[in-house]
Amino acid sequence: MRIAIVTDSTAYLNEQEYKEENIHFVPLSCIFGKKVYKEEIDMTTDEFFEKVREAEQLPTSSQPTVGDFTALYESLQDDYDAIISIHLSSRISGTFQNAFSVAESIQGISVHPVDSGLAGAGLAFQVKEAARMAKLGKSVNDIIERMEELKSETEIYFVVDDLTNLIKGGRLSKTAGGVATLLKIKPVLTMRAGEIIPFDKIRTKKKAVRKMESVFEESVKNSHFPIQATVVHAYCEEEARQFMVSLKEKYPTVRFNFSFLGPVVGVHTGEGAIGMSWTKDYSRM
């Protein structure tokens, strides 16, 4: 069976990964005032963060439309027998719901939507593993079962450097945000049950990143299987790359990747955020 793998732009894969792994995607959009920009198509991540700096209000985001999904699914009908469509957490966005709606009504190909329960690098782990399994000729059921396993096995953490977005978005009061900024407190966020939630509050970014690494270190020590990890950043690439270099030296058994946080996730974390996600590496088992 020829299985197509579809995701959305919040997997934040690069062009080479989409091409080499034969992965298809639909973009989410960010909205500044009345202007709508498709993520990574109409606006790059760098352009997004520059624009946020100047904006009085945070942009909002919107999921791909039913029409977007229909057009993509129909374009795959001639070359594939089935589609597995893997998307960011339904607790963050309505993307999965729209994929599900189209899957129920489309004719000519079977579509299997998957709620990853994750976003960013966590979503990317599922998408790339699905593509790997599809190339190996695995069944739809086998691939979906693996996605569920990865959902429960994946950890995601972000260190927030700039509290501006949390304040603008109403997740942190101006008073609390002012005190936190004064004390150099950096929130560490994680994902649980499909939602981005606070994990810890640490003074200074350096210590907060160290805290995130300590959680990762514990996972590596206690793991009985190979681990893959991805370091992500929100418009602070050089700092994140230096962090990844140090991780590679300390944890030589881990396979590391590098990615970024685009507009839809970056609007939560703000500029300067550094994150990590890790999970079981089935490709080495």
UniProtKB/TrEMBL annotation:
Source superkingdom: Bacteria
Q: Does the keyword Ribonucleoprotein apply?
A: no
Q: Which UniProt keywords apply?
A: Lipid-binding
What does the record give under GO molecular function? lipid binding
State one Pfam family annotation: DegV
Transmembrane ranges, per UniProt, are: none
Question: Does the keyword ATP-binding belong to this entry?
Answer: no
**Protein task:** May bind long-chain fatty acids, such as palmitate, and may play a role in lipid transport or fatty acid metabolism.
What protein name applies here? Answer: EDD domain protein, DegV family
What species does this protein belong to? Alkalibacterium thalassium
